[in-house]
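How a chain folds remains the central question behind the approach discussed here. For one protein, we set the task of working out the structure tokens from the amino acid sequence alone. The sequence in question and its structure tokens are set out directly beneath this paragraph.

_____
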Amino acid sequence: MKWLFLLGLVALSECLVKVPLHKGKSLRDRLREDGKLKDFLKTHQVNLASKYFPRLAAQVATEPMTNYMDTTYYGTISIGTPPQNFNVIFDSGSANLWVPSTSCTSSACSNHNEFNPSSSSTFQATSQSLSIGYGTGSMTGVLGYDTVQVGGLTVTNQVFGLAYTEADFFSQMPFDGILGVAYPSIASDGATPVFDNMWSQGLLSQDLFSVYLSANGASGSVVIFGGYETSYYSGAMNWIPLSSQGYWQITVDSVTMNGNVIACNGGCQAIVDTGTSLIAGSSSGVANIQNAVGAYQDSNGEYVVNCNSVGSLPDMVFNINGVQYPVPASAYINQNYCTLNVQQTPVDLWILGDVFIREYYVVFDRTNNYVGLAPIA
């Protein structure tokens, strides 16, 4: 099939370049004489691929991310014409893109980049309001449309939020806004996510993206749109079917430590969330984890362990779709403060945040509705 496809492209180019330029000598002959035939055929085949087989001309886009103290990972995008730059979290736990605007009245906007719609020749305003709540705060604003550039890709007519108000929490964050990469079904106000437009506009070779998060503040974190890179992981990539298509939600069969079930006995639901720093879970499950590692609550309300015991603590093992995914104590314990990187959620839903993702290269596959997990290399 592959070779027939390539031969078809060659046949198409043969048909098109044999049109005579003038009587007695073809375009092919003239290009051959001028030494330009090879370059012409190469360019022509690429153009044919773009016209008749647009996915062949699509690409894989790699967006570097900055690791901010192992708590937040963000990359740089641009919006508008000429482009205005913003640092954003690529958040698999939400589906909207928003950035601060010059109309924002909150102090949280004042120390961040703000989008100026009057400075963009391609901006299209709407009167549709936007309101999004997160676990750490909320934002309100209005929707607009403009050109968005991510990882070298140009997405046209992209809807995004212009924040008018932001929670104080955001003033302490190194990023300007959020680019959600979850399913469109959870997007506020029916906004089409950036990733969906990347695919529908023929910019990607595959309908998936992948994430590698570095540890210990190191550089090298990336989100790759349209593919995944085998050098980031070792062993086999295990594919886990989604249990719901809104968040990137999967079923966890159990959570064990030292072979004993400490959470999710009989199974529970979890989301793989690049926008959450910690691992979070049900109150009973987290309480069992706290007891298993001997954590106690300090005056700040955080759960801490004896720093000398970290090296002897067992792995926290997530059993998912028949495969074990261990998270070592060096990951679920903050090495600087000996605090537990696991917290309770108000709902019976586990969140596998950055503490988990740093241990595993993650592929988010929209074609098959899978999450792929493999140990980092």
